[in-house]
């Protein structure tokens, strides 16, 4: 019986034909070769896509849609550094200036001044028209028709007076009162008749004021008790003024 001859490509000829095993090997290698030929093209396509994405990101960053930052920045540009807000927090006496910076006008609460004259004068936290105020000047109104007066010396140290005025929320419901504020002998605020559940925001110039007088009179026809409150009353000092205050 004749011995089958090997082909030049490793197959076995049987009757002049290459075996089926050899043909499968040829197809497999052709497929591998075709795949390898596609790799350079695929890498080129990926590189093109990444380039397009980088260009798109650069365009978006240029028009301000996005911000691109490096994950590690040794020394960021000045405009990207976080700087303290000079208005954040409060300086001494509520001036709101940064430590070491220029000092703004000092703010003094009215309850820090010692009255020259007082009648039924109180200080502390009060609620007016549903709002809580931590620091207030309160004048009790125990007797209908009887005016209660408190006087403070401003010494012409201040430029502005600011307060919220109303009746204390815990006053008797029947209480009504009229309050006037004087800068020396001039009326700078007249409340009209006040009732519970109402308040007013008041700002007045006191640049030329030596004394500040608060006079409040209960006006209801029946007996009632309560307080007129100047809530969070504040004085703004004139530039360069550092008035001495006495805490109550």
- Summarize model confidence as the mean pLDDT: 80
The CATH superfamily name of the largest domain is NPCBM/NEW2 domain
CATH architecture of the largest domain: Sandwich
- What is the number of E strands? 12
The percent range for strand residues is 25-35%
- Which regions contain 5 or more consecutive residues with pLDDT less than 50? 70-74, 76-98
Number of helices: 1
Given helix and strand content, the structural type is alpha+beta
Taking the alpha carbons of the first and last residues, their distance comes to 130 Å
Examine the coordinates and then state which fold CATH places here, giving the name of the CATH topology of the largest domain: Jelly Rolls
Helix content: 10-25%
Using the alpha-carbon principal axes, give the shape: rod-shaped
Assign the CATH class of the largest domain. Answer: Mainly Beta
Please indicate the count of domains: 2
- Rg, rounded, reads 44 Å
Helix-strand pattern, N to C? EEHEEEEEEEEEE
Largest sheet: 6 strands, antiparallel
Topology:
Elements (H helix, E strand, L loop, with lengths): L12 E2 L2 E2 L1 H43 L44 E3 L11 E8 L2 E10 L7 E6 L4 E10 L9 E7 L2 E9 L4 E7 L5 E8 L8 E11 L11
Antiparallel strand pairs: 1-2, 3-12, 4-5, 5-12, 6-11, 7-10, 7-12, 8-9, 8-11
């Amino acid at each position: 019986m004749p011995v089958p001859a090997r082909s030049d490509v490793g197959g076995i000829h049987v009757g002049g034909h290459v075996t089926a095993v050899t043909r499968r090997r040829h197809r497999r290698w052709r497929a591998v070769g075709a795949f390898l030929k596609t790799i350079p093209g695929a890498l080129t396509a990926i590189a093109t896509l990444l380039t397009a994405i980088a260009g798109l990101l650069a365009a978006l960053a240029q028009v301000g849609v996005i911000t691109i930052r490096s994950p590690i920045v040794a020394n960021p540009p000045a405009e990207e550094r976080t700087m303290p807000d000079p208005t954040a927090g409060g300086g001494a006496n509520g001036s709101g200036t940064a430590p070491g910076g220029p000092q703004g006008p000092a703010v003094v609460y009215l309850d820090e001044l010692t009255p020259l004259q007082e009648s039924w004068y109180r200080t502390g936290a009060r609620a007016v028209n549903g709002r809580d105020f931590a620091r207030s000047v309160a004048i009790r109104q125990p007797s209908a028709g009887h005016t209660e007066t408190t006087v403070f010396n401003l010494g012409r140290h201040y430029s502005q007076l600011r307060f919220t005025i109303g009746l204390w929320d815990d006053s008797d419901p029947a209480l009504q009162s009229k309050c006037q504020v004087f800068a020396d002998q001039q009326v700078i605020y007249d409340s009209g008749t006040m009732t519970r559940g109402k308040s007013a925001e008041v700002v007045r110039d006191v640049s030329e004021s030596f004394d500040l007088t608060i006079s409040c009179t209960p006006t209801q026809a029946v007996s009632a008790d309560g307080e007129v409150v100047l809530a969070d009353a504040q004085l703004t000092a004139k530039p360069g003024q550092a008035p001495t205050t006495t805490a109550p």
